[in-house]
Amino acid sequence: MADIVSASIAIGGTVSATQFAELATLIAEYDLRVEWGGKPFDPNHLPQDDALRLFAEEAAWGMFDDLEQFCCDEGLAYQRWSGACAGSFGAERIVYDGSMNGPWNFAVDEDDHIVLHAQTIEELGSMRAIRKYIAQAEIIFAAFNSPTSLIAFLAADGGEPARGPVRRRRTRRFRWLSCRWSHWGATEPSRNPHRVDRGQGLREDRRQQLHGPF
Known about the structure:
There is one protein chain. By secondary structure, this protein is of the alpha+beta class. The protein has helices at about 15-30, 65-75, 120-125, 125-135, 150-155, 200-210; strands spanning about 5-15, 50-60, 75-80, 90-95, 105, 145, 175, 195. Helices cover about 30% and strands about 20% of the residues. Strands 1, 2, 3, 4, 5, 6, 7 and 8 form an 8-stranded mixed sheet that branches. A hairpin with a 7-residue loop joins strand 4 and strand 5.
């Protein structure tokens, strides 16, 4: 049974009408809201000069697997925060800047502040490296934009995005930046690349580190 925690995601960049249709479908599948405890996302009302910010008070493993994979595949920058689940995993921030590198995973607290553990500080080794580490976690989002053709697209479809099957996503490689907590049982340097299979993925891997496979 999945651990349920709060999570949020911010998405920036420019999308085509086709990309927006699939994005809106994925957002609806996760029942994301425009604010904590707020109304569901409405594709007719997009942010002005800001990233698209969405919230879920109950997210399985604190992840939006298919939505995050879509952003990776389409080169859309995103940042996802998820809260901790006692005895299972800590709060985290996933950051993807829209390039071929990443996404990157950072340990944070419940207020989404970066957490630097003693092991992380020792591995980084200098204030310069620590500042660079923190800078990688603090990306600046481009506003979420869609072309003018999106208006016509929504009007032709009655204001609703097309509903259809979401194509299978390719997996990407997460790069771990010293964010494994000591109780996860990690002994090797945590900046080594780590493959994440979306779906079971990140949380299943962590659970096995805690309790062993079952």
